[in-house]
Structure formats: structure tokens, C-alpha cells
């Protein structure tokens, strides 16, 4: 679970920095933004996560309950 949470944190921080112009936008950042904008769980997160067919919103709510 810690690996998943670290991946989520790092990828979102990198995307934020890219959108603010602090970093160059990479292909993986574009993919992350595209998947999130269509309410899909990003593939970089899925490889560390449990299997689920939920949308990003429902998946994240479930993740928060599991962490708590």
C-alpha cells in the first residue's frame, strides 16, 4: 500500500510541476492527465494497486477507506 501511495504522490507532484512550468511535460505526464480527465485509474497506479473496475472517483474513495 505504501508503494501505491508513494507512486500516486510522486506522479501528481510531477504533473503539478509540469503544468506550472517547473518541469518539462513528459509522455507519462500527458498519459496521467489524459487518464485522469476521463476518470480512469492511471496505469502507473494500477500496477501497484488491487484489481478494480471502478471509475477513478469510486476507486479513490475506496482507497481512502482502505488506508483509514
Nutshell version of this structure?
The mean pLDDT is 95.
Strand fraction equals under 5%
Our count of helices gives 4
Shape: globular
Uncertain runs are none
Radius of gyration: 12 Å
Biggest sheet character: none
Give the beta-strand count: 0
Pattern of helices and strands? HHHH
Structural class: mainly alpha
* Helix content bin: 55-70%
Distance between the termini: 12 Å
How many discrete domains? Answer: 1
- Residue-averaged pLDDT: 95
Quaternary organisation of the protein chains: single chain
List the helices and strands and how they pair.
Blueprint: H1 2-20, H2 27-37, H3 43-46, H4 56-67
Helix pairs in contact: 1-2
Notable traits:
68 residues; mainly alpha; 0% strand
Descriptive overview:
It is a single chain. Helices cover 68% and strands 0% of the residues. The model has no long low-confidence stretch (mean pLDDT 95). The chain has four helices and no strands. The chain has one domain (2-67). It starts with a helix and ends with a helix. The longest helix has 19 residues, at 2-20. It is globular, with a radius of gyration of 12 Å. The protein is an all-alpha fold. Helix 1 (2-20) crosses helix 2 (27-37). It has helices at 2-20, 27-37, 43-46, 56-67.
Amino acid at each position: 500500500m505504501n508503494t501505491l501511495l508513494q507512486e500516486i504522490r510522486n506522479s501528481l507532484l510531477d504533473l503539478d510541476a509540469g503544468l506550472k512550468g517547473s518541469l518539462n511535460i513528459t509522455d507519462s505526464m500527458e498519459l496521467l492527465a489524459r487518464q485522469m480527465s476521463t476518470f480512469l485509474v492511471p496505469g502507473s497506479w494500477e500496477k501497484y494497486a488491487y484489481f478494480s473496475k471502478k471509475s477513478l472517483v469510486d476507486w479513490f474513495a475506496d482507497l481512502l477507506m482502505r488506508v483509514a
